[in-house]
Design brief:
binds alpha-D-galactopyranose; 13 strands; 4-stranded antiparallel beta sheet; alpha+beta
């Protein structure tokens, strides 16, 4: 049974003995370009996926949280006051963390009963965790009348609260792109997010107008941001900015890259810096092309982005490289890994007529390499979080 607002409401009633106050949903995201730029105050360009996480919620009189998910046998029941770094563990931390972060931001919150159901594949680099956080945050904001699930400015505040939940309670040191995508994207558009000042602009993104499709290739290779690699990349970027005496790598103009790299202490830090600075520039170039109606010309930027992540940032893996290479040799205009890296998904911009060929070539190449079968599917740019019922 695919997740839906009705089904999660029914599951809530079965689990807790009465109906939820409502159902809210938030989407997963896929980033078109601009990877590991968010925590460098840079630019990124995600779209919201048509795949969503649904949260059925009812507030409780006391301060107990009862958390359930149709994706997991784990159930949590705990006091709001017991929510802290690492507690509850697992997915419970993402849900309970939102309540903790709302409180941390000065809001009065209460206990709740929660049932989750999700269409967003877990561990695929498509931000199932941000979809979870944002669906819960939207529900709590509405039910407590916090006014944080309203216009874009309010949603920006709510996104920051969800980031705090993820960083502090779930202890994943991520940037802010995913939560902004889940709360601020618009259907048919990519979201240009400027992480220096939090401003966004909506960039039309409609591959079908060019007879193109955006194909997601979920490699099913292990994707875990908590294993320290993500944090290491973030630390290298912070160190580079420190050595340059800048608040962030965003301040390095791409035209000054060579002279800037000469100022850094070693080759690894130079490579990490080169990725971030060139990637931010690729986002700007992509947006300019999209605004000129030149989507097909974005392909080479996707390819350059992938090489930069593979060679300079060191976050690709064999499965992602095979997916990207096979897609581009079978007709994709461009392809790149997307998200945090070390597994998860790649995307390809493919002529719609060639989607089946590309998918089959990738499936065969994975089988030949002894990898698990990937899951390939085309997506359109969906809308952000909303109240369902
Ligand atoms: C993960 C993080 C984001 C971002 C991407 C890489 O998805 O959650 O904040 O850093 O990786 O672009």
């Amino acid at each position: 049974m695919p997740a839906s607002a009705d089904f999660v409401a029914q599951s809530f009633s079965e689990a807790f003995g009465s109906e939820p106050s409502g159902v809210w949903s938030a989407p997963g995201r896929v980033n078109l370009i601009g990877e590991h730029t968010d925590y460098n105050a840079g630019l990124c360009l995600p779209i919201a996926l048509p795949l969503r996480t649904y949260a059925a919620v009812r507030l409780r009189a006391g301060s107990v949280l009862r958390l359930r998910s149709l994706q997991s046998p784990e159930q949590y029941e705990l006091e709001l006051d017991d929510v802290r770094a690492g507690n509850p563990p697992g997915w419970g931390g993402y849900a309970a963390g939102v309540l903790w972060a709302l409180k941390d931001a000065g809001h009065e919150v209460s206990g709740l009963d929660l049932m989750l159901d999700s269409q967003v594949p877990l561990g695929a680099g498509l931000s199932s965790s941000a979809a979870l956080e944002c669906s819960v945050a939207a529900a709590v904001s509405d039910l407590l009348d916090l006014g944080l699930f309203g216009d874009d400015q309010a949603r920006a505040t709510l996104a920051a609260i969800c980031v705090n939940a993820e960083n502090t309670i779930a202890q994943a040191p991520t940037g802010g792109m995913d939560q902004s995508a889940a709360l601020r994207c618009r259907a048919g558009h990519a979201l240009l997010l400027d992480c220096r000042d939090g401003t966004v602009s909506q960039v039309p993104f409609d591959p079908s107008a060019h007879r193109l499709s955006l194909l997601i290739m979920n490699t099913r290779a292990n994707h875990a941001l908590g294993d320290g690699q993500y944090a290491q990349r973030r630390a290298s970027c912070d160190e580079a900015a420190r050595q340059l005496g800048l608040p962030s790598l965003r301040e390095v103009a791409v035209g000054d890259l060579d002279v800037t790299l000469d100022l850094l202490s070693d080759d690894e830090i130079r490579a990490r810096t080169r990725h971030v600075v060139t990637e931010i520039d690729r986002v700007s170039q992509t947006v300019a092309l999209l605004r000129e109606g030149r989507l097909p010309d974005v392909g080479p930027l996707f390819n350059a982005s992938h090489l930069s992540m593979r060679d300079d940032f060191g976050i690709s893996c064999a499965e992602l490289d095979v997916a990207v290479e096979v897609a581009t040799t079978h007709g994709a205009l461009g392809a790149r890994m997307t998200g945090g890296g070390f597994g998860g998904s790649a995307i390809a911009l493919v002529p719609t007529d060639s989607t089946a060929d590309v998918t089959s070539a990738v499936m065969h190449a994975f089988a030949d390499s002894g990898f698990s079968a990937p899951h390939c599917f085309a997506v359109t740019a969906g809308g952000s979080a909303q109240r369902e019922s």
